[in-house]
Amino acid sequence: MKTDIQIAQEATMLPVKDVAAGYGISEDDLELYGKYKAKFSDELLEKVKNNPDGKLVLVTAINPTPAGEGKTTTSIGLAQALAKLDKKCLLALREPSLGPCFGIKGGAAGGGYAQAVPMEDLNLHFTGDFHAITSANNLLAAIVDNHIHQGNELRIDTRQIIWKRCLDMNDRALRNIVVGLGSKADGFVREDHFVITVATEIMAILCLAEDMADLKRRLARIVVAYNLDGNPVTAGQLNAVGSMAALLKDAIKPNLIQTLEHTGCIVHGGPFANIAHGCNSVRATKAALKMADIVITEAGFGADLGAEKFMDIKCRMAGLKPDAVVLVATVRALKYNGGVPKADLANENLDALAKGICNLEKHIENLQKYGVPIVVTLNSFLTDTEAEHEYIRNFCEERGCEFALSEVWAKGGEGGLDLAEKVLTTLDEKESHFHVLYEDELPLKEKIEKVAKEIYGADGVNYIPAAEKMLDKITEMGYGKLPVCMAKTQYSLSDDQTKLGRPEGYSISVRDAYVNAGAGFVVVLTGAIMTMPGLPKKPAAYSIDVDDAGKITGLF
User: Fold this and answer.
1) What is the pLDDT of residues 339-386, one digit of tens each?
2) 3-state SS, residue 221
3) Taking Cα atoms as reference points, which of 423, 406, 299 lies closest to residue 363?
């Protein structure tokens, strides 16, 4: 059996200018990064902004398991299938982080015959967006320390610097560090921290900014520290905005590549959904809607994280209204939720399926709260049985959802035709009545409790005193009307990753909170979630190599 990277490397790609031409985009409107990658010019985005919007379809999933779900694979395969049905379709996806590529997951460009290409470029340095975000973040960190070293005119309290340095790689050793060691000329000694680039506020800002002017406004609002009087100090006060924006001037432009079947794929931005808001950029999604009749986008991890944030943060801020949601599951993952060990998932087990399907049921109920019609799709495996498929089909249809099998990993667009037909039927026959889960005016704690109770299924929320104090301070500072961005494990509906299925009778634990004033949301840390992941015992990096001819291997 061929690996994903072998399939991708054997594919024949079209020049990206030819892919763009299929959407009415001329070569003059592209900024080429070689033959197969390009950025959209600002002139193009201005040119298409008055075009009518296409339909927006969100792809999300049940909670991830070691059995795999295939959300990105399904998104790409669905777009390829819609193209086979002569629909003008574009993908709007996130860029992969080097952290998971070299950590647990390997590649992150889809799989099998439903991939975005050039796969190696996408998974590695791509067009340099993440490097620009990392540089802008660390420039601000350097400016903070330099301001203190040069006299500290703003009276920054060195015990209350909240801006952290970042790196786009999992590295647990950098979570907690000390900077400024050495002589007096080496700076002020203080504790510091690193987060992974995809958890940074700069990443969130880039993905939520409408244009350069909005980007600069958001950068100026970043709270980097508090002064000795307890008042916030911003990036604007530190005169850091212009130089940060200069580093981000190209990164803010969406990137265009293609799928294995030459469907256009806009890939831009990549915040994690477990520790950030988990969606590609507003600019990319809005541009896609102006260029295609149907846009397929995705949100990170399970619907309790990615879809909730897509709806309550991205759609709220950008005025987007999804027309349908595709909810991805697998028979294997549902049986895993039912208590079957990973080694035994290939065996038919309707009892375990009946026990584990409660996870899918909860995600259906959650998505229905947003008023958007749902299509459930099973990412098909050879070990699935007809009885298992029929059980899930009946379960979904009884709850008012369309149902389709997906075989896009093995067959590409051809394997997604059933799903594509169900999506088209849903778009034609079912009206979306999209609305957010909570209103802006609701106090922060009530927003947190709304998500915890209605989306996670918790009985309530426990706040440690420091978190409660911080939420009160954020409200006093005037940020109480912002939406909340919950940082929570992706592996469970709860904040305990060992609780599979549909946990009940528990409380969510909130241990900290901070305001991302530039991005426009309040981050709430639950459980033991980390904003700088570590590498596993056997990281994917062990299998990645490059031969003498420059050909990369082992990238999934």
Assistant:
1) 999 889 999 999 999 999 999 999 999 999 999 999 999 998 889 999
2) helix
3) 299
Rounded CA gap, 472 and 488, in Å? 21
Nearest CA-CA partner of 23 in 408, 290, 238: 290
The vertex-56 CA angle with 100 and 97, nearest 5°, equals 10
Query: Amino acid letter at 386?
Result: E
DSSP annotation of 442: S
Q: Nearest 10 degrees: CA dihedral of 106, 108, 114, 118?
A: -100
Contact 133, 248 (CB under 8 A): yes
pLDDT classification of 324: cutoffs 50, 70, 90: very high
Contact 265, 325 (CB under 8 A): no
- DSSP-derived secondary structure for 34-57: SSS-EEE-HHHHHHHTTSPP-EEE
Number of H helices, E strands in the chain: 21, 25
Residue 355 CA to residue 59 CA, distance in Å, equals: 24
Give the orientation angle of helix 201-208 with respect to helix 212-221, to 10 degrees.
150
What CA–CA distance (Å, rounded) separates 352 from 490? Answer: 21
Give yes or no for a contact between 220 and 235, defined as CB atoms under 8 angstroms apart.
yes
**What is the separation of C-alpha 260 from the centre of its chain, rounded to a whole number of angstroms?**
22
- The alpha-helical segments, DSSP class H, found in 150-227 are 201-208, 212-221
List CB contacts of 386: < 8 A, sequence separation 6 or more: none
Contact between 311 and 437 under an 8 Å Cβ cutoff? The reply is: yes
pTM of structure: 0.95
Which of 295, 361, 376 lies closest to 330 in space, CA to CA? 376
Per-residue pLDDT at 105 exceeds 70:
no
- Whole-angstrom Cα distance, residue 229 to residue 319? 37
Per-residue confidence band for 107, with pLDDT thresholds at 50, 70 and 90: low
Q: Which residues contact 422 (CB under 8 A, 6 or more apart)?
A: 375, 377, 402, 403, 404
pLDDT at position 555 is 84
Q: In percent, how much of the chain has pLDDT > 70? A: 99
Burial of 425 (0-12, 13-18, 19+ CB in 10 A): middle
Cite the active site residues.
71, 73, 94, 105, 273, 301, 381, 409
